[in-house]
């Protein structure tokens, strides 16, 4: 779960670069064919590039491989969405519970997750921590077909990050 500053910084920079280099910069209709490329094929390229970056950065050891596998499992089995408050524009990624009876929503920020695994490792860590939910939250906009944004009022913010499972 521990990751170096360099790994996390490289991950964020490379994922941003993938978004920039595969976006539709000229404003054309992304559903129309353009040099034989469709929106679906662009999304596939983004997904493939993002997963390759993650594998290259974290696949060097068993702990890194477990982190990647865990994040992919979260993306496959959980519902993730960005929550943005209005008017302050604070945001986080919510990871809804899976099918386990005791599961609850986790809240992910760039440098914090409300999951128990993050808390356990953070108590002894002297560097940055990246849990599977945080990695999944970074990947979600690039690899999920649907990654929705929900808007809430600033007054609802503290209740939303309390991690009780009340549908947002």
From TrEMBL:
Show the Pfam families listed in the entry.
SWIM
Q: Which GO terms describe its cellular component?
A: Shu complex
- Which InterPro entries does the entry link to? Znf_SWIM
Keyword list (alphabetical) reads: Metal-binding, Zinc, Zinc-finger
Q: Name one GO biological process term.
A: double-strand break repair via homologous recombination
In this protein, which residues make up the domain named SWIM-type?
105-142
Q: Which residues cross the membrane?
A: none
* GO MF entries: zinc ion binding
By its UniProt entry, which PANTHER family does this protein fall under?
ZINC FINGER SWIM DOMAIN-CONTAINING PROTEIN 7 (PTHR28498)
Give the protein name, as stated in the record.
Answer: SWIM-type domain-containing protein
Source species, please?
Chrysophaeum taylorii
Q: What is the lineage of its organism?
A: Eukaryota, Sar, Stramenopiles, Ochrophyta, Pelagophyceae
